[in-house]
Amino acid sequence: MKPFFYGKHYHSVDSKGRVAIPSSFRRKLGQEPGDTLILHARPDGAIRVHPAADWMDFWEAALPGITRYQDDSDDARRLLGEVEEVTVDRQGRVLIPRPMLEEAGISDQVVFSGAGEYFEVWDVDRYKRNRVENADKRRDALAVAEKRYREMRETRHAPGRPDVP
User: Fold this and answer.
1) Which label site among 14, 68, 92, 115 has the fewest CB atoms less than 10 Å from its CB?
2) What is the pLDDT along the chain (165 residues), one digit of tens a residue?
3) 59 and 32 in one domain?
4) What are phi and psi of 120, to 5 degrees?
5) How many domains does the chain divide into?
6) CA distance 49 to 85
7) CB–CB of 11/20 below 8 Å?
8) Is the C-alpha dihedral spanning 6, 9, 13, 19 positive or negative?
9) Is pTM beyond 0.85 here?
């Protein structure tokens, strides 16, 4: 089963750019020292963190039909030029490359935010601004999720339909 990340955790970044992955995320990753994670810099300032095993699934879904033989590889370059592969050390930390930290506006404090099949690393202030700026979108998304859940529950327990756990 794929890991599912939720919650938020605050951590410090050391002077070398290393940050400890929250223990609850490490448990879900099943990562061992030396294992690989994929960091993907986002235009909104987030750094998405994908388990390496799931990265190819993301890549194949994100860029359908693009191959290394296509003349126009702008989409591939735009996405893959913002990706770094990192390894988890014995203390459960990863080294985020300095250019990626700078582009994300990260200096000494970060927030890890679960996002389902991946998690994100944010500068704390940028994360807070993003939450305020997108409060309406969060409310709308929650309303849609709650509606889908109610519909699913009603469908499962409809008359004449056996209960599905």
Assistant:
1) 68
2) 788 899 999 999 999 999 999 999 998 887 666 788 999 888 899 999 988 878 777 777 766 665 555 555 666 666 676 789 999 999 999 999 999 999 999 999 999 999 998 999 999 999 998 888 876 776 777 777 788 878 888 887 666 655 555
3) yes
4) -125, 150
5) 2
6) 10
7) yes
8) negative
9) no
Do 113 and 80 share a structural domain?
A: yes
Does residue 116 lie within any of the structural domains?
Answer: yes
- 41 and 108 share a domain? yes
Domain extent at residue 102? 8-124
Phi-psi group of 57: left, alpha or beta (phi > 0 → left; psi -120 to 50 → alpha; rest → beta): alpha
> H or E element: which one contains 10?
strand 8-12
In a domain, 50, yes or no: yes
